[in-house]
């Protein structure tokens, strides 16, 4: 392939640079200027990842002044292309390829084919294999239950799988102490987030268990919850946000905090949640006609 100063080429490895122009050649190396990116690249002639760009009759091009022109015919002189084009008024213009705008987008298959941008077959095979494995992962019954840093205990997996596949599940996890109710809740939440059934979650726990939940969710499920207290909420409001509970997707707070701040509790209620998890819910007291404040809050 002969490279001539003034010819226009596009980099197959860096198409985002736009349309390049040969500005120097010494037989072994060529230098291209990419006006749109205001960058230069030097390539070895023998293995330059370049594709020649020559517009065809009917194509619309822009000159360096960004005037749209329609190509009618092409002539060559000493290896350079000259376009006979017309503007929107019908006036004919001879446009040397060196005066073509450097902005070019080769995003469609047709544009890539006609510009000579062909990928190797191994790249197609890699993309096809990736899509196959992605489909296999998304259709797996275990999707959302994998990747947790915890022992895969049968009773936890069964409960998590049965509950997590429901839309808007409403359940009471009532295993004995030490059987992993926190892990079960985390697995259910993780599954709902991974499968798109949920995107926003609020966890309400006793104040003494806040950091335990925060660490467990991050360490075992890689879920980074925001720990909300009065000081943090006040800082968010001072920064200009009306409802602090709408600034994060995953929020953890204590029940005592909500009971002590009725206004913030109301803002939490006004926020749209996909999932609410309440720890130690069996301590919420209820009597007919006289439910506790904590019960009513939840």
Tell me what you see in this structure.
The chain has 298 residues and is of the alpha+beta class. It is 30% helix and 22% strand. It has helices spanning 109-114, 121-138, 154-164, 181-194, 210-221, 230-238, 255-260, 262-270, 293-297; strands at 8-11, 19-25, 29-34, 39-44, 50-52, 60-62, 68-77, 80-86, 92-96, 201-205, 226-227, 250-254, 275-278. Strands 4-3-2-1-5 form a five-stranded antiparallel sheet, with no helix packed on it. Strands 6-7-8-9 form a four-stranded antiparallel sheet, with no helix packed on it. A four-stranded parallel sheet has the order 11-12-10-13. A hairpin with a 3-residue loop joins strand 2 (19-25) and strand 3 (29-34). Helix 3 (154-164) packs across helix 4. The chain is elongated, with a radius of gyration of 31 Å. The N and C termini lie far apart (74 Å).
Brief overview, please?
The chain has 298 residues and is of the alpha+beta class. It is 30% helix and 22% strand.
Strand and helix map with partners:
Blueprint: E1 8-11, E2 19-25, E3 29-34, E4 39-44, E5 50-52, E6 60-62, E7 68-77, E8 80-86, E9 92-96, H1 109-114, H2 121-138, H3 154-164, H4 181-194, E10 201-205, H5 210-221, E11 226-227, H6 230-238, E12 250-254, H7 255-260, H8 262-270, E13 275-278, H9 293-297
- Strand % is 15-25%
User: Which regions contain 5 or more consecutive residues with pLDDT less than 50?
Assistant: none
What Rg, in angstroms, do the CA atoms define? 31 Å
The portion of residues assigned to helices is 25-40%
Average pLDDT figure: 85
Helix count from the secondary structure assignment = 9
Determine the N-to-C terminus distance.
74 Å
Give me the count of strands. Answer: 13
Order of helices and strands: EEEEEEEEEHHHHEHEHEHHEH
Class of secondary structure makeup: alpha+beta
Question: Order of strands across the biggest sheet?
Answer: 4-3-2-1-5
Characterize the biggest β-sheet: 5 strands, antiparallel
Shape, please?
elongated
